[in-house]
Amino acid sequence: MPEHVMKRLAEEIKLLEYELTTELPAEIKKAVALGDLSENAEYHMAKQRQVFVNARLGQLKERMGELAMVNLTNIPHDKVGFGATVTVFDSSKNEELKYQLVTSEESDVAKGLISTTSPIGRALLGKKIGEIATVVTPNGKRELEILKLVTVHDAADAALEMESTSLSAVELKLESEPE
Hints:
The chain has helices at residues 3-33, 41-68, 119-124, 152-176; strands at residues 85-90, 95-102, 113-115, 132-137, 140-150. It is an alpha+beta fold. β1 and β2 form a beta hairpin.
């Protein structure tokens, strides 16, 4: 699982927990000291913020739990899945596009990072090279033919191969150096 997403969520949780346990109680205490709570805007705003922060914390903790349960071994080796980089031909635009399927927290369409839960992401999931994914958009149907696929497993294998090649080069250099 992308560690940077987990780290970002953990940081937001930490900030919200600090606000909930330290800042908001101080604001509520200060507002109570102002008197009549029925017409005390500061008190009502602090209480509303407290409810919002509690709800957001619940969402973030639930999402952290979901992300922690992602098992990369369940992602297919020959089909589009989470983490895959896919090159497609969009027949409606008559152009080649490259997408990487990521979590909703990482998605950025301008950079080609699309969520597995987006319409394009859902249409591509489970497809193989040569298959056509049909995407229903507000502007009509788009057909995307899968031209190239690099799964998360392929990327990991390539990274390991590059690392071992680099290590071999270093070992050769060390062996050839005079002592």
